[in-house]
Amino acid sequence: MKTIIKTYPNGLRLSVTPMADFKSVAFSMLVMVGSGDETKTEEGLSHFCEHMLFKGTTKRTGQQVIDEFANLGVQYNAWTSESATCYHTKAVADNLEACIDLFSDMYFNLKFAEDDFDKEGDVIVQEIAMHEDHPVSVMYDRMNSLFYQGTKYEHPVAGYAKAIKAYRPNDIYTYVKKHYIAPNTILAFAGNITLERAEELVAKYYLPFMSKEPAEPKRRENIPAIQPAPALLPVKKDTEQQHVIMSIPVCNQYSDDRYALTILGMLFGGDMSSRLFISVREKLGLVYSISTDLELCDIGGRFGVVFSCTPKNTQKVITVIQQEIDKILHDGVTENELAKYRNQWHLQRLFDSEVTTRVNGRLVEQLAERNHIVTYEDELKIVDSLTVTDINAVAKKYLSKDKFLTVIVGK
């Protein structure tokens, strides 16, 4: 599988992965702006813009946009993160161009009724409230705020209800005009498409409406990973269980340690045969589920454990987690564990390679987050080169019972 990356003089980037044996084509229109790019007076605007792009253009009403996607029978959606906003679809070759026409219209010709703006603001306030009613969402949100306190990633992606209610239509138009530009944009195709066809679509639906000024693509900086101090944050919620996340600071998304950390996370709590699942659930019956959590970004990363249990079991689970960390630090991981999870990595990448949306999503996110792509083949070579010594070295480098930031949501 070969991916071609093309950078246009105006900074627009194109990624094309031809997969001739497939009938479908995945397309992503990613804009490198997320909650981490917002100022204090813009919190939540990246996510708000994602919603509003579906609410109409100078050519189509919001209902027409939705109806046209529905009539095409395609899959389509969008998401916003701390670092990007992405609009994506999965189509067949015959109706791909119609999808590109829609996405291009949304990108360049945003126009919506003020009534639709007010209603969508209310929808986002409901979305925020929904997440606040979901203890696991609260757990991750509070950990993000605690871990990234004082940084650009401290506030939630959706923003705060008070700010959302205060925004006006011009805030959306201004934000889109500022950020939805060629150097911030990546267009990615994977599936039943050629480079030549992708270039034709870009030349027809994007380049004529973009600035011709030469520009370099936006790139995330590789800066030293933050190292927040240990902390405990209890969050009161009327729940039957306590929902717990314990995170240790590790490297950022550019570090080569990420491969060994991923293997470490898999064997520590990645599946039903992992150490934590066996020790905490199978042997002691203290939880229904327990898993590891590895999140890396441009300014840092966290490696941790997530579990839910009744309050009387919480400290018992934490004690077992600490004991399992001691075992890894003292005894290390085994050759059998490395072989098992290396094989899992291989098979997961094989499964991913059979789904055009996963291929495309992985590539466009790599390009946005790390400024380049690592092919499946190159990634597997790196994973195959890892040794038990490498995994143990990363464990000793980062794991420590004294470094945890912990959030507990519940009674």
List keywords for this structure.
five-stranded mixed β-sheet, 11 strands, alpha+beta, 15 helices, 411 residues, 2 domains, globular
Average pLDDT: 96
Helix content: 40-55%
Q: Under the CATH scheme, which architecture of the largest domain would be assigned?
A: 2-Layer Sandwich
Number of spatially distinct domains: 2
Shape: globular
Counting helices, strands and paired strands, the structural category is: alpha+beta
- Main sheet record: 6 strands, mixed
- Radius of gyration from the alpha-carbon trace, in angstroms: 23 Å
The CATH class name of the largest domain reads Alpha Beta
| H/E element sequence | EEEHHEEHHHHHEHEEHHEEHHHHHE
What does this structure look like?
- The protein is α+β, with helices and mostly antiparallel strands.
- It has two domains: 4-209, Cytochrome Bc1 Complex, Chain A, domain 1; 231-410, Cytochrome Bc1 Complex, Chain A, domain 1.
- Helices cover 46% and strands 18% of the residues.
- It is built from 15 helices and eleven strands.
- It has helices at 45-52, 62-72, 93-108, 114-132, 135-147, 161-166, 169-179, 195-205, 257-269, 275-282, 314-331, 335-352, 356-370, 376-385, 388-398, and strands at residues 4-7, 13-18, 24-31, 75-80, 85-92, 185-191, 231-236, 242-249, 290-296, 301-309, 405-410.
- The strands form two sheets. It has a six-stranded mixed beta sheet, sandwiched between helices.
- Strand 4 and strand 5 (85-92) form a beta hairpin.
- It is globular and about 65 Å long.
- The protein starts with a strand and ends with a strand.
- The model has no long low-confidence stretch (mean pLDDT 96).
